[in-house]
Amino acid sequence: MSSAQLEQHHLDLQQLQQVFEPPAAIQTRAHVPSIEAYRDMYRLSVSDPNKFWRQIASEFYWHSKPDGAEEAPILDYNFDLSKGGIYVRWFKGWRTNICYNALDRHVLAGRGDRVAFYWEGNDPEDRTSITYAELLQQVCRFANVLKSNGVKKGDRVAIYMPMVLELVVAMLACARIGAVHSIVFGGFSAGSLADRIINAKCHILITCDGNWRGTKLLSLKSIADKAMSICIEEGNPVVTCLVVSHVKRPRFGSDEADGDSHSSKPGIRPAKDCPVEMLAGRDVWWHEAMAKEDISDDCQPEWLDAEDPLFMLYTSGSTGKPKGVLHTVGGYMVYSATTFKFSFDYHLEDIYWCTADIGWITGHSYVVYGPMANCATSVMFEGLPTWPDAGRCWDVVDKYKVTTFYTAPTAIRTLMKSSDAFVERSSRASLRIIASVGEPINPEAWLWYHRVVGRSQCSVVDTFWQTETGGHVITPLPGATPTKPGSACFPFFGVQPVLLNPETGDVIEGPGEGYLVFAGPWPGIMRTVFGDHPRYEQTYFSKFNGYYTTGDGAQRDKDGYLWVTGRIDDMINVSGHLLSTAQIESALVEHPKVAEAAVVGRHHDVKGESAYAFVTLKDGATFDDSLVRQLLVIVRERIGAFAAPDTIQEAPALPKTRSGKIMRRILREIAAKSENYGDVSTLADPGVIETLVALRTRQV
C-alpha cells in the first residue's frame, strides 16, 4: 500500500468513529425533530403501548369496533412457553380493510389524482404512471375477476410476477376481498414455486408471460407451467391461472408498429422469443378477464377483523424447508404505515423509491402497503441498477426527482465497484434521505453512500428488520438520530431489544455483544407459521423463554448504539474469540482495491475454527501476494491478530440469490472442500461455484 493509500486508510478509520448529526434542512421539517423528541415518544411506546398505538391507530379507518373498545386493552400476548401457547393479538375485534385504507380513504379525501406509482421499465424509455383513483378502479375490477373465479375470504392466492403494476393490483385485490396472497419472487424456480403453492394450498395462480432483466429474458409462464405440473403430481392442482401479457406488449408510449421495430433488441419490449402456452379451461389472459362486460368497477371491501390473515410470505428455514410467515390485517397495516412515515420522515411532497422486489418483505411493506397507507408517490422499478450502465439508479433519481432512496447494501457495494463518474454525471439534488435494507451495511459502504451518492447532505437510514417483524425494528430517524456508520442505531417505537449471553441466556447490560432478542410484541410482528404453529413456537420462542429470537447477533456500544453483526451462524469462534464475520468483512473492504468480501468459518484442528475470506476486487485490480499481505495488516489493525483469516481467496463474483443476498452456506462448503452445496436453484449465477472451486488455491 502506498503512503498516500495508508494515509487515506488511517483517515477512513477516524471517519468511521465519526457521529453524523441530522442535516438541518431535514430536521426543521421532521416529524420527530430531535433525539429528545424520539426518546420521549419511545418511552411512552414501551411504558404504555396501549395509549401510544391507540393514538397512532386513530389515523386509520376502522369500520367498526367492539363495545368498550375505547377502554379495553388493544394488546394481548404471551411470549412465555411455560405459561402456554405463544400468541399475539393487536386490535382484536376492530374491523377494517387495508386496501380501503390504501386507496378509498385517499380518493374520498380528494387525493384521487395523486400519482401512486411512476413505473420505470427495464428499458429506460419504457415508463408510465397510475393515480390513486385509476388504481382503485383497476383493483375493484380485478377483485371482481377473482370473485368470479370462486375466490373468497380466507382463500390463498399465489402470485408469481415481475415488478409490473398488475402485481400491485393483484395483491390489493386479494386484500380487498379478504383473500390471503402468497407472493413468490419471480426469480424462483418451478420447484420452489410449486412447493409454496402446495404448502399454502393455493388453487389460483397469477403470473406473467415474462420479463426482461437487463438483456436476459425470463419466461415466467413457462416456469409457472412446470410448477403447475408438479402441483398436479402432488395432488394440489391449480384450477385457474391468470396471465398478464407484459413482455410481448409494446413498451409504453409506442404503437404496435413502433414496437415491431424494437422486437429484436435485447432488453426492450415487445419480445417475440417468449413463447406462451395457454391451457384451455385453466389459463386466462388478464386483459381478457378484465374486459368482460359482467366485471364491474365497483367492489365493496370485505370488513375484516384486525387479526384476520392478510398475507403469507415464505422465508428460508434453518432446516431448508421454507416457512410461510403469516401477517394479519390490523397490526401490520398500522406498523408498516407508521414505520414508513417516521423512518423515512415522509411528507406528501416527497417522491419515494424503494428498489426492492415486491416478492420480498421489503417490497410488501415499503413498496406497497406502507407507502400507500400514507398516500405516497413512489417509483416502481422493473430493471437492474447496472443496466444499461452503472448510472441507471441516479438517472432515475433525476428523472422523477426522487427525495427518498431505499436499497440494499449489496447494490451499494456493486455500484461502488464502478467509477464514481456514473454517480457524478447525475445531479441527485432532490435527494434528502438515502436508506439501506437487507443486511448490515459495512461502514465503508455507508461512508461512500453518504459522501458520493448523498453529497454529504442526506440522512443515511440504515434499517434492521426481518420478514417476521413486518417492518423496521431498529433504525435511525432522519431528523432526530445522530448516526454512526454501520450502526442501525436505536429501536423503533414499541420495540424492546435485549442482548443475551448465547451460552447462559443472561441479559447483557450496557456495552457488550450477544444474541439479539426482543421483549414483547409490536403491532407488525408475525402471528404464526402457516399451518405449523409448533414450528413458529420452536423457531422463535423456545431458545430464550419470554423473548422473540431474531437469530442475529448484535453489539451495543457505550452510547447505546446497536450494531447488528449478522446471523448467529455467521459468527465464528477462533481460539475462544467470538468473531462476527461481518466485522472481518468490513475490515477487508477498507482496502481501496476491494469491492466486496465474504468471510465464513472453517474447521481448524487447533483453533476450533478459522476465518476463510473471499474477496472481490474492483475493476482493474490484481490479486497477488502483496495484496494479501496488505489485507492481513488491515484486519490485524482493525480487529486484532486473532481475527486474521487463515485463507484469503480471490472471488471474481460471490454466490448470490437473485435478490442479491450472499449464500454463505455455499461458501462454507467451498472453504471446507466439500461438494454438498444443497439446493442452488435460487442462485443468480450457478457458474460462480465452479469458478470459486477452481480458484481455491491461495493459502496465507
From TrEMBL:
Domain AMP-dependent synthetase/ligase: from-to ranges: 108-527
Ranges for domain Acetyl-coenzyme A synthetase N-terminal: 38-102
Statement: the UniProt record of this protein carries the keyword Ligase: yes
GO MF term list: acetate-CoA ligase activity; ATP binding
Keyword Methyltransferase recorded: no
Listed InterPro entries: ACAS_N, AMP-bd_C, AMP-bd_C_sf, AMP-binding_CS, AMP-dep_synth/lig_dom, ANL_N_sf
EC number: 6.2.1.1
Keywords: ATP-binding, Ligase, Nucleotide-binding
GO biological process terms on file: acetyl-CoA biosynthetic process
PANTHER family: ACETYL-COENZYME A SYNTHETASE (PTHR24095:SF244)
Family: Belongs to the ATP-dependent AMP-binding enzyme family.
Name this polypeptide is given: acetate--CoA ligase
Organism per entry: Macrostomum lignano
